[in-house]
Design goal:
By secondary structure, the protein is an alpha/beta fold. The chain folds into two domains: 230 residues, Aspartate Aminotransferase, domain 2 (3-Layer(aba) Sandwich), CATH 3.40.640; 142 residues, Aspartate Aminotransferase, domain 1 (Alpha-Beta Complex), CATH 3.90.1150.10. Helices cover 35% and strands 13% of the residues. The chain has eleven helices and twelve strands. Helix 5 links the parallel strand 4 and strand 5. It is globular. It starts with 24 loop residues before the first helix and ends in an 8-residue tail after the last helix. It binds pyridoxal-5'-phosphate (PLP). Pyridoxal-5'-phosphate (PLP) binds next to helix 3 and helix 4.
């Protein structure tokens, strides 16, 4: 008789994990007060209040709220003076928005491999990718695991490059006790529905430099000068990339819960690291010791098929799902092989055939991921995840292909 649920056995669990976004009546109170105020956009107080509160939460001086994470990256690149033909170094393992934003400025993405057994840019390979056309580096804190900011900032300083942190998946994450997004010249976050702090859509750019802040403010608001400007109108070109009061209101309300939710996910992530570390075949990708808190937008691990009698990652995932665990994986191809990169915004052919990222190729084939909503679960929920993995390993013979 089969033991594994995928073959008809009893599943480890049939209970759902917490759903996302979570609901709280307090969000509604703010929503209603904004409705009644009749100030739903320009001139409202919630957008600047949220910009200041979130900047403070992440440890930065200034924030400019925008309408998406993609916009945040695009405007940061514009404020960093990235234009046609300029090169921007980034990781081969990311969501396409990181790269689309570079293309939107007519810049050229240059891809660097991920570190071995990691989902993050290999800082030791950045320097060899720098040319005289390089303007900026975009490290991506994938799933809230902070990239090596010490090395990246050191390289940027020596080569006079801007650093734009892609923190779309890293709310609450900390590097050496200080929030990500406050280390580079710009920190770009997304508030799209799946994110750990969300309003359906939205984004923010964090900065510490006053001049960059005023420039970015103008860029996002039709060239208008920031209300608290010290430098005057330094960027007359701009368009409407503004956030609404609705978004800011919901975000302000949800921000009051972000600290405890981040700690909860971080604790569960550590707990899973401990247990998965005991299961041969599931490689844990622990936080860098300098990363004092993970943003935990997801749980990441690496599947070693050899330790599971050569079953494929997909077979393992299917078996875990049958046991009631919503396991999956994220990006299945390195970004430089994306169709949209075949030509630039002027229609000229792009060629990434010399780009070689063997470590990214590997994790695209072997990466595992659990969503951040799963990390909002209880200790019992986490136990079920581990129980299911152990059950499958013990009974892997039932899954042997061919
Ligand atoms: C790494 C990364 N960068 C940028 C973005 C873009 O954010 P948005 O969807 O708000 O435009 C996302 C969104 O998923 C992302 O995951």
């Amino acid at each position: 008789m089969s033991v594994l649920a995928v073959n008809g056995g009893e599943p480890v669990r049939d209970k759902a994990f917490p759903s996302w976004p979570s609901l709280d009546p307090k969000d509604l109170e703010l929503f209603e007060s904004i409705y009644k105020s009749k100030v739903w956009g320009v001139g409202g107080s919630h957008v600047p209040e949220f910009a200041n509160s979130f900047a403070e939460f992440q440890g930065a001086k200034y924030g400019v709220c925008v309408n998406s994470g993609t916009t945040a990256l695009y405007l940061a690149l514009k404020a960093a003076d990235v234009g046609p033909g300029d090169e921007v170094i980034t990781t081969a393992y990311t969501f396409q928005a990181t790269v689309v934003a570079i293309m939107m400025t007519h810049g050229i993405p240059v891809f660097v491999d991920t570190a071995p057994d990691s989902f993050l840019i290999d800082a030791s390979k950045i320097e060899e990718a720098i040319t005289e056309r390089t303007k900026a580096i975009i490290p991506v804190h994938i799933a809230g695991y902070p990239a090596d900011m010490d090395s990246i900032l050191d390289i940027a300083e020596r080569h006079n490059l801007r650093v734009i942190e892609d923190c779309a998946q890293a709310h609450g994450a900390e590097w050496r006790g200080k929030g990500v997004g406050s280390w580079g010249d710009f920190g770009c976050f997304s508030f799209q529905s799946s994110k750990n702090l969300c309003a359906g859509e939205g984004g923010i750019v964090l900065m510490n430099d006053r001049q960059l802040y005023e420039r970015l403010f103008s860029l996002h608001n039709c060239g208008r000068t920031a209300p608290d400007a010290e430098y005057g109108n330094i960027e007359p070109f701009g368009a409407n990339f503004r956030m609404t009061e609705w978004q800011a209101g919901i975000l302000l309300s949800r921000l009051t819960r972000l600290e405890s939710e981040t700690n909860h996910r971080h604790m569960n992530m550590r707990w899973l690291d401990g247990w998965f570390g005991e299961i041969p075949g599931i490689k844990v990708t622990t936080l860098d010791p300098r990363a004092t808190r993970g943003g935990s937008h997801g749980y990441k691990a690496i599947f070693d098929s050899e330790e599971f009698e050569d079953i494929s990652r997909e077979t393992f995932i299917k078996a875990m799902r049958a046991e009631g665990i919503p396991l999956g994986y994220w990006y299945s191809t390195p970004m430089f092989r994306s169709e949209f990169l075949e030509s630039n915004t002027f229609g000229e052919k792009l060629d990434f055939s010399d780009t070689n990222c063997p470590e990214t190729e590997k994790i695209c084939q072997s990466g595992l991921a659990l969503g951040q909503n799963v990390l909002m679960g209880t200790e019992e929920d986490m136990e079920d995840i581990v129980k299911a993995a152990i059950k499958i390993r013990r009974n892997v013979g039932e899954l042997k292909e061919g």
